[in-house]
Amino acid sequence: MIAGALDTLAPPQLVRERAFEEVRDAIIAGRIAPGARLIERELCAALGISRASVREMIRRLEAERLVSVEPRKGPTVMALTRKDAAEIYEVRALLEALLIERFTAVASGDEIAHLERIFAQVRAAAATDAVSEIVALMLRFNDHLVDVVRHDVARDLLRQLNARINFLRIRAMAKPGRIAASLEEIGAILDAVRGRDGARAGALMKASVEHARDAALEQLATQDTDRPSGKRRGSAASRRPTDHQGSR
Amino acid sequence: MIAGALDTLAPPQLVRERAFEEVRDAIIAGRIAPGARLIERELCAALGISRASVREMIRRLEAERLVSVEPRKGPTVMALTRKDAAEIYEVRALLEALLIERFTAVASGDEIAHLERIFAQVRAAAATDAVSEIVALMLRFNDHLVDVVRHDVARDLLRQLNARINFLRIRAMAKPGRIAASLEEIGAILDAVRGRDGARAGALMKASVEHARDAALEQLATQDTDRPSGKRRGSAASRRPTDHQGSR
DNA sequence: TGCGCAATCTTGTCTGACAAGGAGACAAAA
DNA sequence: TTTTGTCTCCTTGTCAGACAAGATTGCGCA
After folding, report:
1. Are A91 and B153 an interchain contact pair (Cβ–Cβ within 8 Å)?
2. E-assigned strand segments in A57-199
3. What is the CATH number of the domain that holds A60?
4. Residue numbers of the domain that contains A160
5. A227 CB inside 7 Å of strand D
6. B28: which of A57, B8, B166, B223 fits an S-S bond (Cβ 3.0–4.6 Å)?
7. Consecutive 10-residue runs of chain A (248 residues): their mean pLDDT?
8. What pTM, to 2 d.p., does this model score?
9. What are the start and end residues of every segment in region (Disordered) (chains A, B) (predicted)?
10. Is A42 inside a domain boundary?
């Protein structure tokens, strides 16, 4: 039996896939500003691919709500409204609570130890104030939960939601005191996990994400204009041209 | 000032949009069998559109998990595994509980009355055993909740999840006794809503969806093969050709 | 019966084309 | 000066056709 000794071969990367990942990453990292238009020609030139492939990629960005497309106007990078952000955090709270609760019920000692190892990395990153590093590690924390719990649906949904708020999470985490609060909350969650108290771990997780939401909304409060209501256009970022320089 | 007197015009229906809706409806209604391959050329012919449009539509079906695409093999209609179904119901339970709880907190008397009117329609349909009618009305029940609560994120996610399990819901609802049980549960939920007891309404909703899940899984238990594991192909439906006859 | 190879499909990608909707510039009219 | 009409340019939506390379299938052969 060879199974286990070899990894399955990575399927040949399709042009449209790589293009999607490239643009998605640029959007969630904020390298393309919210509100910026994505013009097919420019994408073709920047990525070196044909319009057909660009358009297929855009359909996917659209379905994942990373861009919004108005017919005959083309896609613009989605600008997160305050309301969207609040809703995403709410759903995240539910899903992550579910995951940690399940995890507490089914994880082996090793798996819990691995979770704690990730937490240690988060703390290490926190010591250096590497904010986006911290957020990235917290995503790995999540990944471990879904890996263990094997909840594909929750994983997909969280991936989608996290992509939309990634930038906001980083901004929120940069708030003074936020890192320390986060660490403490996660510590408490891990205590509950160690004590195999799933209900408690779930409740703590839910509360933790809701705190994160509050911090994020405060960040947004200063300069966000709730609903992009009808007529008004050109709110700062939206007329800036797309910015591809960051991508290889 | 004219604003407010007029509604914004509906955007012109794009070919790719109509095609998407057509195929999506065929899939969720089961007119195209799970596992069936969707061949581009056949879709072009059946829908009377070009390959480019077909391919853009497929990207969206893919993102919504209605088809799964393997590179260079093309899309096949997603076959719901037992595990997927269980997970979808779990997330649905969380989201719908959230919605009914919010609804209970914010709904006006009129809005509650409208919910009860929809429930009356469900009961009417139940009297005639029109199973798919019942499920459709229950979706409208949901729609009313999200309309009132205005939770766009939850609405999107539920729409996506419901599309994937629609067919299963219908099958589960056909089980003897299931309709009566459902009606009773919804009745209890409405009582809680009327009494403005959000926590109770949420808990009842969660339990109700979980009951539905159990019924659905029983339906699936009889003939489902959990994971489509690697090599094995051609499990009954998957070699059946696509079936477009139902669509205009 | 089982295997290997060639013929046939099918997908992935590119190119080029064209109609029609949107946006901005500019001139004419009130 | 503000409003309206017109023109031009840009961009999207859609189509047709082409071709390489990976998948399938069926057939002949052992």
Report:
1. yes
2. 67-70, 74-77
3. 1.10.10.10
4. 82-224
5. no
6. B166
7. 60 89 97 97 97 98 97 96 97 98 98 98 94 96 98 98 97 95 98 98 98 95 48 34 34
8. 0.89
9. 217-248
10. yes
